[in-house]
Amino acid sequence: MERITSDEAAGLVRSGDSVVISGSGGGHAVPEALLAALGQRFLATQQPRDITSISVVGIGDRAALGASHLAQEGLLKRAITSALVDSPGLVTMAANDTIEAYTLPQGVLSQLMREMAGGRPGLITKTGLNTFVDPRQQGARQSPSTEEMLVELMHIDGGEWLRFKPFPIDVAFLRGTTADEDGNVTMEQEAVLGEMLAMAQATRRAGGIVIVQVKRMARRGTLPPKQVKIPGILVDFVVVEAEQRQTYATDYDPSYAGELRVPLSEIRPLPFGPRKVIVRRAAMELYPHAVCNLGAGISTGLSTVAAEEDLLDSVILTNE
């Protein structure tokens, strides 16, 4: 493992490379310094060109951060993600047919990383059948010039299935909290773990390089082995960003990292309005020991309402 700067990391990306990027919308485990450095390098040198960005979740603050650093004509050729909305620059480029764009199901992309890490021929699932993801419709393509089909219709035992094809990875931009001198990475201050390990494994299997942005360095042999999320054998380069924020909204919130659980009295109630009315109605469907998965949008308020009604210990809320 070699320690380098964010600018040096950006210099490792070549024209035509495919770059897989960790994290989730809102700055959760997003390697922001690496993305910013890559965007700045292109502004200064017009290199690299025609890269492909791959992220399981849309990444950005719905303004200028995250994948929006890459939303520059000539720098980006193709974007593969589950949501473009977090990076308005990508939305504009896709709408203007300036880039090739795909929006595949988030869970599919997550599991596809694991399949690629294992060297398997993609992910076979029924998810996406008879929707815009189906190759008989759009095949998840979101701009007119996007021609290559990343999804294939298959028939197995008389049933229809979709195969989501693997794709090449040349560089991984990942993030953790601490790295030791051997490149072992822990994520004790991160709000989400995501697909860090699978992304590193998939990149290495494809012969690519793995670059991890962290907040701090530790002495060799001092990290608790059970806390290591990316083993050093998978890490080529580490970039230390001392000012790394936990999310775009928080420097560090211990409850986001699971260090503690705040008292219910500390959770601010939702203000009264249409969103609260909707989630309160949804909360009426809860029952003891119910398992409820919360996606993005209005549904995130369900947890706040459950806290107000002292229901959190009676149900199990999971996150997408």
Descriptive account of the structure:
The structure is a single chain. The protein is an alpha/beta fold and 320 residues long. It folds into 2 domains: 1-258, Glutaconate Coenzyme A-transferase (3-Layer(aba) Sandwich); 264-319, no CATH class. The protein is built from 7 helices and 17 strands. The strands form 4 sheets. An 8-stranded parallel β-sheet has the order 1-15-12-9-2-3-4-5, sandwiched between helices. Strands 13-10-11-14 form a 4-stranded mixed β-sheet. Helix 6 packs across helix 7. The longest helix has 14 residues, at 32-45. It starts with a strand and ends with a strand.
- Euclidean distance between termini CA atoms: 33 Å
Low-confidence stretches: none
Radius of gyration: 20 Å
CATH architecture grouping of the largest domain: 3-Layer(aba) Sandwich
Helix content: 10-25%
Largest sheet: 8 strands, parallel
Annotation field: number of helices? 7
User: How many independent structural domains?
Assistant: 2
What does the overall shape look like? Answer: globular
Query: Regarding quaternary structure, how should these chains be classified?
Result: single chain
* Percent of residues in beta strands: 15-25%
The fourth-level CATH homologous superfamily of the largest domain is Glutaconate Coenzyme A-transferase
- The counted number of beta strands is 17
Lay out the secondary structure.
Blueprint: E1 2-4, H1 6-10, E2 18-21, H2 32-45, E3 51-55, E4 76-81, H3 88-95, E5 100-103, H4 106-117, E6 123-125, E7 151-156, E8 159-164, E9 171-175, E10 178-180, E11 185-186, H5 196-205, E12 209-214, E13 216-218, E14 228-230, E15 237-240, H6 274-283, E16 291-294, H7 301-308, E17 316-319
Parallel strand pairs: 1-15, 2-3, 2-9, 3-4, 4-5, 9-12, 10-13, 12-15, 16-17
Antiparallel strand pairs: 6-8, 7-8, 10-11, 11-14
Helix pairs in contact: 4-5, 6-7
